[in-house]
Amino acid sequence: MNILFYLAAVVAVVAAVMVITRLNAVHALLYMIVSLLALALVFYTLGAPFVAALEIIIYAGAIMVLFVFVVMMLNLGEAATAQELIWLNPHAWRGPALLALVLVALLVYTLGGNGRFLPATIISPKQVSLTLFGPYLLGVELASFLLLAGLVGAHHLGKRDG
Amino acid sequence: MAEIPMEHGLIVAGLLFATGMVGVIVRRNIFFILLSIEMMLNAAGLAFVVAGARWAQADGQVMFIFILAMAAAEVSVGLALVLQLYNRFKTVDVDAASEMRG
Amino acid sequence: MVLTPLWVLAGSVVVVMLVAAFVQRERITAVLTLIGLTAALITLPLVQPYLPHQVTPLLVMDEYALFYLGLLLAAAFIIVVQGYSYWRRWDGDAHAFYILLLLAVLGTAVLVTSSHFASFFLGLEILSVALYTLIAYSQSPRKRVEAGLKYLILAGTTAAFLLFGMALIYAELGTMSLIGIAERITAVSSNLLFMTGVGLLLVGIAFKLALVPFHLWTPDVYQGAPAPVTAFIATVSKGAMFVLLLRYFGTWGLLQNGQVDNTLTFIAVASILGGNLLAVQQQNIKRLLAYSSIAHLGYLLIPLIAFNAMTTSAVAFYLVVYFLTTLCAFGVISLLSRPTAEQEELSAYQGLFWQRPYLALIFMVALLSLAGLPPLAGLMGKVYLASAGLTSQLWLLLLVLVLGSVIGVFYYLRVIVVMVQRTESEEKTAVSGLQTPGGILLIVMAFLLVFLGVYPNPLIQLITVIFAS
Fold first, then answer.
1. How far are the Cα atoms of C122, C131, C151 from residue C96, in angstroms, in the given order?
2. Which residues of chain B lie closer than 8 angstroms to A19, CB-CB?
3. Which residue in C350, C331, C177, C156 sits closest to C251, CA to CA?
4. Which stretch of A129-143, B12-26, C266-280, C370-384 has the lowest confidence by average pLDDT?
5. pTM of the complete model
6. Interface probe, candidates B34, B74, B90, chain C, greatest C C-beta count within 10 A
7. Model pLDDT for residues B15-56, shown as the tens digit of each residue
C-alpha cells in the first residue's frame, strides 16, 4: 500500500508537469485528467475513499469535461499550437521554475523530518456525511449559495449580447 | 491503508501547487492559466485530505468537498468569461487582451 | 434565532431571483432588493439581546459582527440605489446585478461572522464568484471582460494560497475553528509550520485588501468595472475582509507577535507610500481612487499593528468615514456615467463646478475628506488612527502616515482644480441629477462628512455603546 502511494504520487506530479508544458490545449487537458486519476488513487491510499470517488466524478468527470467542451467550441487549431511554440521558449521557464524550486525547498525545510506518521485508518463515507450534516451543516447551505452565484453569473455572461 | 509520514503527503501537495503556480506565471493562453489554477486548488485539497488523515478526522475531506464546489463555480464563470473574451478580443492571449495600463 | 439577518439576506436572494424570473421589470427587482436589505438591517437590533452566540463551530454572532453587518448592509443599500439609476441608462438586462449583489453581500456577511476556516473560505468564495460576473457585467466596453478575467485569475490563485495555508495550520494543530486554534497555539513564533500557514493566509487576505505587493489588480479592475460595482469592491468587500483580519489575528494573539508586526508594518508603509505616489500621475479618476484606496487600507493597518485599547474603536470610526467618502465619490461618478460610456478621464470633469455646481461640491467634500483636510470627517478619522499609533509609539508608521497624507493632498486638490477650471466643452451628457433617490443619498452623505468632521461625538458614542460588551 505504501508503494502504491508513492507510485501514484509520482504519476500525479509528472502528469502535472506535462500539463503546463504542452503546446496543445487538448493534450494538456488529457494529462490533467491523468493527474487527477492518479490523485484519486493517492486519496484512496490515504484512507479517504469518498473523496477519491468525488475527485473522479466531479473534478475529472465534470470540471475537466467543461474545459474540453469550451476548448473544442473555440476550435483554435494549428495556429494556436504554432503560437505557443513561439511563446514557450526555455528562457521563459527559468525564472518561475527557480522560484518554484525555492518554494518547495522552503516547504520541505518547514516540515522538518519529525516523521509524524498518518494513522492507517479509513474514514468512511458515513463518517464524512455525519460530519458534513453535523457541525458543517451551515457550510452545506453556504456551498449551495456559492453554486447559485456561479449559476446566475454563468447564465448572464453566456448571453449573446448585453 | 498506507502508513506514510505526513510530510511526504504535504510535499506532494507542495510540488503540485508549485507546478500550478509556474503554469499561471508562464503561460499566456487563458485556458492553460485556468487549468493551472485548478491544479493549485487540487493541491490545496490534497493538503487538506492529508491533514485530515493525520488527525483521523473527516473535516479534511469536508473541506475538500467545499473546495470542489468552489472550483466548479469558478470554472463555470471563468469559461463563460473566456468565451466573452474570445468574442470581443478575437484572441485567447491574456497579454494581447490587456488594454488597460497595468 | 440569532443568525436571522443572514437568513433574511439569503431569503431575499431567492425571492428576488424568483420574482425577476417571472416579472421582467427592473424597478420591482430593485425595490425588492432594497426591501430585503432593509429587512436584514431591521433584524439586527432584534437579535442584540441574545449576543454573543456561537452557531455551530462555523459562525459567531457578537456585537462586533453586528456593528459591521449594519455598516455593510447600509453601504449595499446605497450602492443598489445608485446602481438603479446607473443601469436604467442601459438597454440590457440588469436583473442579475441585483441578485449577484445580494449574494455578494451574503458572502461578506458570512465573512464578518466567521469563526472557522470553512465559513471563512465559503464566505470569501461566494463574494468572489459573485464579483467575477459583477465586474464584467455589461460586457461592453470590452475592458469589463478584461477586468473580470484579471480579477478571476488573481482571486483564484490567491484563494489557492489561502487554502494551502489553512491546510498547513490544520495539519499542525488539528482544528480549524478560530477559538480551537487560539487554544492550541503554544510558543507561536517557534512553530514554523503554523507561521508558514499564517503567511500563506496573509497572501489571500492581502489580495482582497489590495495591499502592496498584492495590489496590481486594483487599478485595472477599478477602471474596468461598472462604477457601482467598483464602489462595492472598494467598500463592502474590503471592509468585510479587514474586519475578519482583525478578528482572526486578534484572537490568535498574532498582533502582539514581533514577526507579524514587522511584516504588517512593511506592508503598511509600502501601501501608504506606493498608493499615494502612484496616484500622483493618474489621469483617470477611477484609477486615482483605486490607488487612493490602497493607501487608505495602509492607514487602517496602523491601529491593527498598535493593537491596544483604542484599536477597535479607531478601526470602526475610520471604516465608517472611509465608507461614506468612497460611496460619495463613486456615487458622483455613477451619476455622471452610463454603463457604455463612463466618465472616468480627469478631463471629463473639467469645469464641472460651473455646469453642475452642487454635484461638484459633493465631489469636493469627498475628495477633501479623503485628503484628511479639516473640517471634514476624514481628518477626524486620521487623528483617531494616529492616536492609536501614538499610544503604542509607532513612530515610523506615524511619520509615513503624515508623509502619505501630504502627497495625497496634491492629487486630490488637482482634481478639484480641474473641476473649477472654466471650459467651453459641451454640457455633460444628460444623466440623472440630484433630485433622484441616489442624488438625495449623496447629499445626506456629504452632509454627514461635514457634520462628523466638526462634531464626531455621536458616532464615537454609538461605537462605544455597541462595543461595550
1. 21, 12, 19
2. 19, 23, 35-36, 39
3. C177
4. C370-384
5. 0.94
6. B74
7. 999 999 999 998 888 999 999 999 999 999 999 999 999 999
